[in-house]
């Protein structure tokens, strides 16, 4: 496909269309205030992105319950006190011409007690000394996702994206390794997917008809099984429970190493599914204009820009201006990031990624 195809509008099942095929992947960056309210650093980060040419911008992982926190200075959406700041972010994105979404997140068994988090495992053995969630507690967390989506609607966002990746609670419940429950949220793959599906159904039921819903899915680690994930994803696509699927791949070029789909690209395992009106995008080492085009050729409807968006907040505009554009090479210096407008809080967060930020960089 030509580069120009990246800049064609894309309709979604609900709400307004995307103006092009670029979506900012949700990027947790630990810039908020300690209570989860939006900070000046959040505002500036979103302001830069809003003028960067993206069709849809998603916040970083936003806590649906205070107890489900995973990171210091994680943005929150679990309390009405968060609404003023979130409204500012939604307005900023709208002024830049893009659509907006809040990523809804609960850390599950990975909640951080040092930050006030309470580990909430699906199984009783996952966290030593911590009992599995009761059925009633699972239902409470489900309802907290739905309540957070309603807050996002009040704040003026176009939609939300449910974080179902990386072993966080929705992903955890999907895993036969991490979920040994015997209630209706455990056992069969249908039962283990029930929490995710009830969250998606509840958001669609409780929010306005044009509210957009995304779902982030990862397929590696945490005991997840590719065959099962494909089955559940197929059901979610068939029922059109979401507007877009965000495949959070470590590398969008990855090939399946064993099992039913050995030798196929992980991407193709999902893009070959009947999708109805649901759109599919992928993230994972997308650093060049050429790779963006290749993803459309490989069956994606949109591309999810993550690390490249940290390096260059206007990555889509650079691609439009130069079909040979490629992101700077890793690792980069802290001064490079500062010069580009990243806050010191964001730079500190990136020090945990030695491949990204030069460890010797002051």
Reading the helices and strands in chain order gives: EHEHEHEHHHEHEHEHEHHHH
Distance between the termini: 42 Å
Determine the number of helices (DSSP H or I, runs of at least 4 residues): 13
CATH C-level: Alpha Beta
How would you classify the helix and strand content by structural class? alpha/beta
What is the mean predicted local confidence, pLDDT?
A: 96
Give a quick account of the main beta sheet: strands, pairing sense, barrel closure. Answer: 8 strands, parallel, barrel
Total discrete domains: 1
The residue fraction in helices comes out at 25-40%
Instruction: Give the low-confidence spans.
Output: none
Describe the global form: globular
Q: Kindly report the CATH topology.
A: TIM Barrel
**Superfamily at the CATH H level?**
Aldolase class I
**Count of extended strands:** 8
* Estimated share of beta-strand residues: 5-15%
C-alpha Rg (nearest Å): 19 Å
Strands across the major sheet, in which order?
1-2-3-4-5-6-7-8
Give the CATH architecture. Alpha-Beta Barrel
Pfam family, one: Oxidored_FMN
Domain NADH:flavin oxidoreductase/NADH oxidase N-terminal: 5-322
Protein name: 2,4-dienoyl-CoA reductase-like NADH-dependent reductase (Old Yellow Enzyme family)
Organism: Inquilinus ginsengisoli
């Amino acid at each position: 496909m030509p580069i120009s195809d990246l800049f064609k509008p894309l309709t979604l099942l609900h709400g307004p269309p995307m103006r092009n095929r670029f979506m900012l992947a949700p990027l947790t960056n630990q810039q908020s205030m300690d209570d989860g309210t939006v900070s000046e650093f959040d505002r500036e980060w979103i302001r830069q992105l809003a003028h960067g040419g993206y069709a849809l911008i998603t916040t970083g992982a936003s806590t649906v319950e205070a107890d489900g926190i995973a990171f210091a200075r994680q943005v929150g959406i679990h309390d009405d006190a968060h609404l003023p700041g979130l409204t500012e972010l939604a307005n900023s994105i709208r002024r830049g011409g893009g659509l907006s979404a809040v990523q809804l997140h609960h850390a599950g068994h990975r909640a951080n007690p040092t930050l006030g988090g309470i580990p909430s495992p699906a199984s009783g053995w996952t966290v030593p000394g911590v009992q599995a969630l009761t059925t009633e507690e699972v239902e409470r967390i489900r309802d907290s996702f739905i309540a957070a989506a309603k807050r996002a609607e009040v704040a003026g966002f176009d939609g939300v994206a449910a974080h179902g990746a990386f072993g966080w609670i929705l992903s955890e419940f999907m895993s036969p390794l991490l979920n040994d429950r015997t209630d209706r949220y455990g056992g069969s793959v249908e039962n283990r997917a029930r929490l995710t599906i009830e969250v998606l159904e509840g958001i669609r039921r409780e929010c306005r008809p044009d509210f957009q819903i995304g779902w982030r899915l990862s397929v590696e680690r945490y005991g997840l099984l590719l065959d099962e994930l494909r089955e559940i994803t197929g059901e979610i696509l068939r029922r059109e429970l979401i507007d877009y699927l965000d495949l959070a791949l470590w590398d969008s070029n990855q090939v399946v190493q064993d099992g039913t789909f050995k030798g196929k690209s992980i991407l193709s395992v999902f893009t070959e599914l009947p999708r109805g009106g649901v759109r599919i995008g992928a993230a994972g080492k997308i650093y060049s204009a050429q790779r963006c085009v290749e993803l459309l050729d490989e069956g994606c409807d949109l591309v999810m820009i993550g690390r490249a968006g940290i390096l260059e907040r206007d990555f889509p505009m650079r691609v439009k201006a130069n079909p040979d554009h490629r992101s700077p090479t890793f690792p980069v210096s802290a001064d490079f990031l500062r010069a580009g407008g990243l806050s010191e809080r964001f730079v500190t967060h990136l020090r945990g990624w030695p491949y990204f930020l030069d460890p010797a960089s002051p």
